[in-house]
Amino acid sequence: MTFNEDSQLSGGKVKRRGRTAAIGGGGVGVAAIVVFLVAQFTGVDLSGLVGDGSGTTQIQQQDETVQPAEECRTGRDANQRVECRMEGAAESLDAYWTGEADSLGIAYTTPGFWLFDGSTDTGCGQASAATGPFYCPPDRSIYLDTAFYDDLQSRYGSSGGPLAQMYVVAHEWGHHVQQLQGTFADTDRSGTGASSGSVRVELQADCYAGAWVGSAATTRDASGETFFEPVTRAQIADALSAASAVGDDSIQERATGRVDPDSFTHGSSAQRQAWFTRGYERGATACDTFSVPGSQL
């Protein structure tokens, strides 16, 4: 999507952490499991992030936090710089979900949103650029190394345009909405398969991302300006390319040359595109993936 150049960004939704440095040892346990689960967005093996099971792992010390939005004041800035684009997307998402919360029966709060370089410490354990973007329920925050967007194009085959980038953020924001709904607590995500609880959670987050896109051109900043210009077909195709690129079948075929639906955790490319489109066309209240028979997911 293209930001309305006259829209105003208030700043403060996105913060950045500098590159971290390893300072010691520790243990694994729950953090290892959580990091594995949240990293499934990219299908990358993250076992090396949390040690080798010998009781040794990295503990990171954070550099000073800075807010990248200090120079992100307008939609024009968001169109030109990826950090400003993240800030603009966050402000639009926050405005959208503030207005949409009542329809879902939730008390909405804003998630944390951290950009980082290289590696960072989270409430779900250590994360690195290889982890990919994820939402961490314990600290209710989104974590993203923007280097992932290069991988989205080069490794995952997405067109990698602005809306593809913001789809990633909107998907993770959807997980925050699910956290507020109690979805994570109420859903058994231990299983796998094309109609498993984990797939239903992920498809709903895709649907929520689509719902935001469907309303983005009418969502307004604090001064009453719309954040975005009207969405084009080409931009929707951009978002759908990202949804397709991170489908379980696409990732598996690239990695192994075969597809195993019984091991799906996020849904196929077709499922992810379909639920994004459903949200885009029908809104957040149409995103109940849990009452749908598996054959209709």
TrEMBL record:
Locations of Basic and acidic residues compositional bias?
Answer: 251-263
Residue segments, region Disordered: 247-270
InterPro entries, A to Z = Uncharacterised_pept_Zn_put
Keywords on this record?
Membrane, Transmembrane, Transmembrane helix
Instruction: Report the superkingdom from the record.
Output: Bacteria
Its localization reads:
Membrane
Keyword Transmembrane recorded:
yes
Q: Where are the transmembrane segments?
A: 21-39
User: How does it sit in the bilayer?
Assistant: Single-pass membrane protein
Report the protein name in the record.
Answer: Neutral zinc metallopeptidase
This chain's source organism reads Curtobacterium oceanosedimentum
